[in-house]
Each structure stands twice: as C-alpha cells, then as structure tokens.
Amino acid sequence: MTFSKTHYILDLSRNFLFLSCVLQSKRIDLTTKLNENRNRLSKFSYLEIFVVWRIQVQKFKLENMERFLLGFPTRNQIGGGESLVDTIKIAVLPIAKVFTICFLGFLLAYFKILPANGRKLLNGLVFSLLLPCLIFSQLGQAITLEKMIEWWFIPFNVLLATISGSLIGLAVASIVRPPYPFFKFTIVHIGIGNIGNVPLVLISALCREKSNPFGDSEKCTQDGNAYISFGQWVGAIVLYTYVFYMLAPPSEGTFDIEDRDLPLKNSPKDSTQEQVPLLTQEAMPTNSDAPKIRKIKDLLAFVFEKLKVKQILHPPIIASILAMVIGCVPFLKRLVFTNDAPLYFFTDSCTILGDAMIPSILLALGGNLIDGPGSSKLGIRTTAAIVFGRLVLVPPAGLGIVMLADKLGFLPPDDKMFRFVLLLQHSMPTSVLSGAVANLRGCGREGAAVLFWVHIFAILSMSGWIVLYLHILF
C-alpha cells in the first residue's frame, strides 16, 4: 500500500473506532453509518481495513482514550473520579478499624485484663480528660466568629435530628406497642443519636486514609472534629433536659413491673419532695420586703436546679464553650492556639492527650459488650424495632433534611465535609450517654441491652450509609 493509501485507511479506521464507541453508548443504528461510507470502503480490501482496525483497537486500549473520546465517565464511576469499589473501600475501612479496636477491648475484658472496674475508670478518664482535650484543641484552632455564624446550621441540625427521630420513634412505638413502662423509652432511644464520640472516631479513621475524598488528612481531621464538637453542646442540653424527663419512671415509681404493687417500697422514690423547697423558693420572691438581689438570687437558683445546669455543664461542654470563647476573640486565639503563641504548649499538650481518646473509648466500648444484652424486659420485638428505627428509618429523614437545607442555601458552599458531618448526625447509633441517663432513671438494664444490639448492627448500617453519602457528595 502507498503512504497516502495507508494514511487514508488509518484515518478511516480511527473514525470508525470513534464511531463504534459512540454508537455503543448512544445506541445509533450502525447500518445507516455503514451505508454512508460504502463508497469509501470499496476502495480497499477488507483484509487491509481489518489489519489496521486491529492495530488501532489495541493502541486505543493501551492508551485508555475512551473517556476522552466519549467525553463522559464510564458507568462504573462516580463523581470525583472514584470508582464504586474505591468508595466502598473508603467507607468500610474506618468501620473495620473501629470494629477491630472494639474487638480487642472485648478480648481484654474476656480475659479479665480489662475488668469492669478498669473499664469504669477508663470511661471516666475519657469523659473527664481525653475528650475535653480533643474538643478544646481541635475546635479552638478551627473556630472564628465568622465561622461560628457560618456554622449556625450544625446545632440547628442536632435539634432537627432529635425532632425527626422522636417523631419516627413515636410512629414505631405506636405500631409495635412496647411493654407498659417503655413507650417513652422506645421513642427516646430511636430519636437520640450519638453526635459526639462515634462520629469523632469515624472522621479520624476516614481522614487517616490516604485515598480519602476530602483531601489533606490533617485539614480533614481538624475540620471534621471542629464541626462535630460545635454541635455537642446542643446535644448535651437535649440529653439532660428532654431525655431526662422522657425517661422519668412511671406513676408506680419504678420500671420494675414486679414491684409495681409495692407502694411502701416505692414511697421513698415516689416522694420526690426534693422539689418542694424549690416551690417555697419560688414563692419567696413574692415578699415585697426582700431585697432585689435576694429575689434574683432565688430566681437563678430555681432556674439552675430546674434546668439541671450541673448535669449539662460536664467537661466536654465546658471545653466546647472555652474553645468557642477563646477561638472567637483574636487576641486570646493568638495567645493560645497559633503555632507561635506563648501558651501553645498547653494546646499541644491537649492535642497529645486528645489523640489517646479514640483508642481508649473504643477499648472501653468493646469491653462493655462482654456483658451482653443483659436481662432486658423489652422483648425481642421492641428491641428489634428500636434497632430498625434508629439505623434504617432515621437516616433517610436526615438525608432529606440536609438536602433541603442545601437547596435553600443554608449550608456553606462547596464544603463537603460540612455536609458529611450533618449527615452523620442522623446516621449514628443510639447515644451512649442516653444509657447513662437511663441508668440514672432506673432502666439501666434495658438501656444497656439497646446499646448492645444497636452498636452491633450499626457496623453494617453505617458502612452502607457512608457509601451512599460519599456517592452523593462526590
């Protein structure tokens, strides 16, 4: 063949290769195109065309030019260039890490290396020191007054998550009809999710991956932890007001049904007359001779007791408030949180202690699973309904809330981590602190049983929801 003839065949075969790709994707009739080029094909033998065609196909495969010729991604790809398999890997690996550390905690508890007293001390250490240090260091470095205004939807989203989850819990409880004292218990344990510890663990594990879609690992961790910490103070208020009163014992004074007919035994518990002095304190300001300072003092004491302020202001909340106050005042922030600050050694020390929070809380959580579901009186049907409602029904409602807020322009533009944290707030298992409140109110065994099963099945549910969220965001 001459040079011009060969060049013509190459050009023709290249056009047919491009045409076949387009036809395959757009389902255009190949016969019509062949008829249009019949005159051109008749000049050469089919063997010549076939040889050049095969060469071009092989070259095309090696250079992987299909995406550029077609101009759109292949079907097994999602936004951001990540394949579906890569997205599943990114979503599942953090859960696998969490499960691995929890399993090690389970083994330590099983072999009595981490007994119940040790787990209690470890929980206290995490709650009183490690978690506040993590919140203070991460939130304080990221927060500013402008960002606090920009992040207003995070605490509002916590309230919306509580309202939507409680409405779903009310519907589930109305259908399932749990045992007598546990109707409100069912609503609360479906409506209240873990917006602190578990999301912090997931963000840390996710950002540690080099292939994470959020970019730089350090910035990913700092932003994610700041967003999560910014919403914790609202969660604490909800927990120690709404949850505390929803889990109040029934009129019999106890959740133990066998003791319902023992009024003498229940009379001390039933006589919650510690509120009686509050009533007298509330009436004291009516005395016109009392000074105004005494009236204000009595009123503040009444509000302080009614709102359970001592229980709301626990160490993580105090750390959040301090971080927001210092972070929003430029002078104080330059004094504490910048790298060349005189007191940066304190922030760096908090960072070191905060890094120990993740493994410590996972070891304690895994060790607590050694006790199993316990002697719960909820029954299999109610327990399964709580698990299903919390892990399957609540997240779609949260997804709708976040997508609607995004459409209305309530969220910062182009901040995918912000949206991811909002979605996580709706997808977490039942709050661990709700179990502490349940224990305080007399239904600790049932609370422990729910936490056990919810966290077991959350390993699967969280993986699925994270895959979906990453697919939507990227």
Question: How would you sum up this structure, described in words?
Answer:
This protein has 474 residues and is mainly α. 74% of the residues lie in helices and 0% in strands. The chain has 25 helices and no strands.
Topology:
Elements: H1 3-26, H2 30-36, H3 38-41, H4 46-63, H5 66-70, H6 84-110, H7 116-142, H8 145-150, H9 153-176, H10 183-191, H11 197-208, H12 217-230, H13 232-246, H14 263-270, H15 276-283, H16 292-306, H17 309-312, H18 315-328, H19 330-336, H20 344-355, H21 357-368, H22 380-407, H23 416-425, H24 432-441, H25 444-473
**Helix count, per DSSP?**
25
Total strand count, please? 0
How would you classify the helix and strand content by structural class? mainly alpha
Outline type: globular
Q: Summarize the helix and strand pattern as letters.
A: HHHHHHHHHHHHHHHHHHHHHHHHH
The average pLDDT is 76
**Cα end-to-end separation:** 51 Å
**Main pleated sheet:** none
Amount of beta strand: under 5%
How much helix, percentage-wise, in residues?
Answer: over 70%
Short description:
The protein is 74% helix and 0% strand. It is an all-alpha fold.
Task: Offer a few descriptive terms.
globular; 474 residues; mainly alpha
